[in-house]
Amino acid sequence: MERDAALLIVDVQNDFCPKGALHVPEGDRVVEPLNRAIRRFQEEGLPILASRDWHPTVTRHFQEYGGIWPAHCVRDTPGALFHPDLRLPWDAVIISKGTDPERDSYSAFDGTTAEGMLLEEFLETQGVHRLYVGGLATDYCIKATVLEGLLLGRKITLLLDAVAGVDLEPGDSVRALEVIRQGGGILSRVDEL
Q1: Element (H or E) spanning 176, and its range?
Q2: CATH code at 29?
Q3: Strand bridging mode 93-97 / 5-10
Q4: If you average pLDDT over residues 187-191, what whole number do you get?
Q5: pLDDT by residue (tens digit) across 147-185?
Q6: How many domains does the chain have?
Q7: Which of 28, 53, 73, 97 is the catalytic position?
């Protein structure tokens, strides 16, 4: 694996998994392949990052305040926690997004580390130029993150077996994958790492 690579796990949180407030159908199926990817990156000594929605109680992102989504991943609630079976290492870098009540912030590049550093700034400080991405949801936060990363000049590989989509409209996830591919993203699988 390239020495300038990192694994970015997007929003594998309780509210996006079965029984959650905004569940992705079979969203928890991404956990096992992501755990395999985590092991591989740990073995290689490469960075592991995990983004999370970390919404305030009042945000225009939610239906109650004019958005399209039911309340979900409200900071410091059980729904905002990472899925309990996701084996994030103790030194994983957590990227919090959706903290601005005036913005949707689908992309992990809108998020910051605990120290307040934007994801892009953090990647620069670590010399990371290639991202391997998995998580939830293919047609929203995954698509937004990958496309923004590509625009910023990063090389991005999407791990197909480690993503799942909402599909508000049938085929949204398939269309998102095609947009990612056309934008320069590489589509691969965890076992091909």
Answers
A1: helix 172-182
A2: 3.40.50.850
A3: unpaired
A4: 97
A5: 999 999 999 999 999 999 999 899 999 999 999 999 999
A6: 1
A7: 97
